[in-house]
Amino acid sequence: MKTLKFKTHLCDKILGGSKTSTWRLFDDKGLQVGDELEFINKDTGETIGTATITSLYTKTLGTLEDKDWEGHERFESNEEMYGTYRSYYGDKVDEDSEVKILSFTFRSLLRDFSDEPVTFVETSRVKDGVYCDVYRFNDDDSKDLGIVRVSKDCRTPLQRVLKGDKTLEIFQTGQGVLSVTNTDGVKIRHVFPSDTPAEVEIKVGDLVQWEAIEDLVFAETCYPPYEDGRFENLNIEN
């Protein structure tokens, strides 16, 4: 996954939702529409979330128009703008410098994990409509974190938990249902969002499956960290 770094004050704007666009000069990453990105706080090295590029076009700094600033922080003057980008890229920046203007949809690490620094590991495709962003906790090797994105009308595979000390399923955003069937055959449906706690502990032997009524994001925390054989996929096409 390609990475983009931002100063802390820009991370705050991204997390707050006011920054939905970024400009990149002298692109050495081959950025293009559809790319999945890891966003990193340049000052701390921490991952703040992931994003997808939704649009991208190129202009020169000297030909920017009002529409090019949508979702981007403003500068008080052209001199401030040039000075800012020279601090990033050196004195070669001028009005003729080409800039890639890209818009993105951002996915933060969401609630519950803001005080626990993590490092992005990879994005894995579980099945059509289901993707998992995998992270490790920087200061805690007893667990790991997956942020799972499920598209509307899609389901995660039906899985049986085979091992592990503790597995937590934690609703984040969207709308969906978590179905858990215990070893006695009793099935409980947890509908989210709701007034009940967003965290559900899954036991060894339980069957578990998420279904997205609307686009859904949930977190999965495994103690100890996930390894092959923790889950058995019973019906990956379901």
Structure description:
The chain contains two helices and 14 strands, in the order βαβββαββββββββββ. By secondary structure, it is mostly beta strands. It folds into two domains: 2-108, Sulfate adenylyltransferase, CATH 3.10.400; 118-235, Jelly Rolls (Sandwich). Strands 6, 7, 8, 9, 10, 11, 12, 13 and 14 form a nine-stranded antiparallel sheet that branches. It has a five-stranded mixed sheet with strand order 1-3-4-5-2.
Count of DSSP strands? 14
The helix-strand sequence is EHEEEHEEEEEEEEEE
Please, what is the CATH homologous superfamily of the largest domain?
A: Jelly Rolls
The CATH C-level name of the largest domain is Mainly Beta
Total helical segments: 2
Low-confidence stretches: none
SS content category = mainly beta
Give the overall shape, derived from the CA principal axes: elongated
Range of strand content? over 45%
Distance between the termini: 28 Å
Largest sheet: 9 strands, antiparallel
- C-alpha Rg (nearest Å): 21 Å
Number of spatially distinct domains: 2
CATH topology annotation of the largest domain = Jelly Rolls
What would you call the quaternary organization?
single chain
Question: Characteristics of this structure?
Answer:
238 residues, 9% helix, elongated, 2 domains, 9-stranded antiparallel sheet, mainly beta, Jelly Rolls, 5-stranded mixed sheet, 14 strands
Short description:
It is built from 2 helices and 14 strands.
SSE blueprint and pairings:
Elements (H helix, E strand, L loop, with lengths): L1 E5 L1 H9 L4 E5 L10 E6 L5 E14 L17 H12 L8 E11 L9 E10 L2 E8 L6 E7 L7 E4 L4 E16 L5 E6 L6 E4 L4 E17 L7 E5 L3
Parallel strand pairs: 1-3
Antiparallel strand pairs: 2-5, 3-4, 4-5, 6-7, 7-8, 8-13, 9-13, 9-14, 10-11, 10-12, 10-13
